[in-house]
Amino acid sequence: MKDFKNKTVVITGASSGIGYACASEFASRGANVVLAARNYEPLSKFGAELEQQYHIKTKSIQCDVSKEEDCKNLIEQALLEFSTIDVLINNAGISMRALFKDLDLTVLKTLMDVNFWGTIYCSKYAMSALLASKGSLVGVSSIAGYRGLPGRTGYSASKFAMNGFMESLRVENLKTGLHVMLACPGFTASNIRNTALDTSGKQQGETSMDEGKMMTAEEVAKQIVDGVLKRKRSLIMTSQGKLAVFMNKFFPSWVDIQVFKLFAKEKNPLIK
212 vs 21, 68, 139, 188, 216, CA distance in Å? Predict the structure, then answer.
């Protein structure tokens, strides 16, 4: 079903994980896709594969979303190529794994620059085009944006900030026709834990959890694309996530204990 035939979708963090899967899903439904990530070579190869498989058009753009000029260039190049933007998926993000007491504060700044400011920059420069198309602005957030997680102070803070920004933006645009959606996957099998920053800001290089029991990036992408099609307000994608958000409203102290127990079971746990 060509749900998005001839629509233009911009996706940040498109070279792997959820962004990669979203690009494939949108392309399979007829969308032209603008792919953004820091590593251009694999991105360009991926774009060519999508064009060949789905007979759509792509544009690959090297972009570090923590840099405002890169985000501005991304949107300008997308508009030069396709004249319009119908969907912006703010997906680029990084995580961390370290206790705050041990943490170099530059790690927190890095996470805010990518996860929060990257969303701000791209959204700002795409806003006029999205308003003109009455399109969709999507933030790929996390349950960590509703519930603080141990060892992820910077990640949770950046996602809380994203959630507040998107919520405010939704209210500002209740009557403009702009669709604003927060997508909050549960734990997803991807490389985000492998590339999570440690106490000094280096990638930890391995996952601390059992990836086999998690949602796949493809499952997440399908829910995001369906959510855009149905113009949903928010998506909380797992029963565990829905329970955590619901219970946190009414029994936050109980949730504190459950979250502690969960993260105490990690490989080489930070809390015991």
Answer: 17, 36, 25, 9, 9
Q: How far apart are CA 134 and CA 152, in angstroms?
A: 35
Measured distance CA(78)–CA(168) in Å, rounded: 26
- Regarding pTM above 0.85, the answer is yes
Catalytic annotation on 40?
A: no
pLDDT tens-place values along the chain, 272 residues long: 468 999 999 999 999 999 999 999 999 999 999 999 999 999 999 999 999 999 999 999 999 999 999 999 999 999 999 999 999 999 999 999 999 999 999 999 999 999 999 999 999 999 999 999 999 999 999 999 999 999 999 999 999 999 999 999 999 999 999 999 999 997 766 555 567 888 878 876 665 555 556 789 999 999 999 999 999 999 999 888 899 999 999 999 999 999 999 999 988 899 98
- The answer to whether residue 271 is domain-embedded is no
Asked whether residue 255 is assigned to any structural domain, the reply reads: no
**Which domain covers residue 234, as residue numbers?**
8-241
Residue 272 is assigned to a structural domain of this protein: no
What residue type is assigned to position 251 of the chain? F
CATH label of the domain that carries residue 169: 3.40.50.720
